[in-house]
Design goal:
eight-stranded mixed sheet; globular; disordered C terminus; 11 helices; Rossmann fold; binds zinc ion; 291 residues; alpha/beta
């Protein structure tokens, strides 16, 4: 039993290496039952949903304010494989909102520190770190063999690169953005829904268009309070879990706009752009997902 294992480890002074504990299959099963007990009892999850989560594979692109939070909750939920992708290093100005890092981690690669931390938090899953920078020529490779992609980015150009790869491979894309006291969230599943470029066309006037559509994508100039990406990252994790367990995903084809100053939450319908250069006329020939 799990509790006996932990007691034994306390006795032998090996508690710090719990993530690396050698459990036989029975002990692992018992531990998993205890670990997920409170969420398996939910009718929305159940044993079936938990099994789906354990067989799921998710890529989180960017492990900053949004990505550390979504990664934490997907780890805790028991998503079987998580790939965290980030080429950046941890800096002092990251610490107030990027919850997987401590001052001891300064100047070290975010992806490696995040992956190690997540693996410690849940030794029942597999977490992989990728420190490559997302480029148009490596994106499909970095996002290969995942069921969905979670957005933890802070710039639009990389988002467009991710979006194009997701449309091409029919991979659902959980979009999130946060700045100041505002945030946005949606789930793109082309061809059923439009894509990011339907929502925000990729052209020189993007900035003005973003303001028109109230999409918040940058926090470098406006600043951000840690709780803002904390909330949006948590919502991204919820939408991802719903997607992976085939629970109805209300944000497919809809954009949630959150204004935490006034605590105003609005959902608007998104329409496909019939002229979209990325998703228009794309067929769902690749049927590796059923979302
Ligand atoms: Zn599109």
């Amino acid at each position: 039993m799990f509790f006996n294992i932990r007691k034994d480890k306390y006795k032998t002074g090996h508690t710090h290496t719990f993530a690396g504990i050698n459990m036989n299959e029975t002990e692992k099963t018992n531990f998993a039952e205890e670990y997920y007990k409170r969420q398996v009892t939910m009718k929305e999850i159940g044993n079936k949903g938990q099994q789906k989560l354990s067989k799921s594979r998710v890529a989180i692109v960017g492990v900053g304010g949004l990505g550390t939070v979504s990664a934490l909750y997907l780890t805790l939920a028991g998503v079987g494989y998580i790939r965290v992708i980030d080429h950046d290093t941890i800096e002092p100005h990251n610490l107030h909102r990027q919850i997987l890092y401590t001052p001891d981690n300064l100047h070290q690669p975010k992806a490696k520190i995040a992956a190690n931390r997540l693996q410690q938090i849940n030794p029942l899953i597999k977490v992989e770190a990728v420190t490559e920078k997302i480029q148009p020529n490596n994106t499909e490779r970095l996002l290969t063999e995942v069921d969905c992609v979670v957005d933890g980015l802070d710039n639009m150009q990389t988002r467009y690169t991710i979006n194009r790869a997701c449309v091409k491979t029919n991979t659902p894309y959980i979009f999130g953005a946060a700045t100041g006291m505002e945030g946005n969230l949606t789930v793109f599943t082309p061809p059923k829904t439009g894509c990011l470029e339907c929502l925000i066309p990729n052209h020189p006037t993007t900035t003005a268009k973003e303001e028109d559509t109230q999409i918040q994508t940058q926090n470098t100039t406006r600043g951000v309070i840690g709780a803002t990406p904390g909330i949006i990252g948590s919502l991204q994790a919820i939408e991802t879990i719903k997607l992976l367990t085939n629970t109805k995903t209300n944000l497919k084809g809809k954009l949630l706009i959150c204004d935490f100053t006034d605590m105003d939450f609005t959902t608007i319908n998104l329409t496909k752009n019939t002229q979209c250069p990325t998703c228009h006329n794309k067929n769902s020939k690749n049927t590796k997902t059923n979302y």
